[in-house]
Amino acid sequence: MKVLVIEDDKFLRELINRKLQSKNFETVLAIDGETGLDLITKETPDIVLLDLILPGINGFEVLTKVKENEKIKDIPVIILSNLGQKDDIEKGMGIGAADYLVKAHFTPSEIIEKINQILAKTSGSEA
Question: 3-state DSSP call for residue 72?
Answer without folding.
Answer: coil
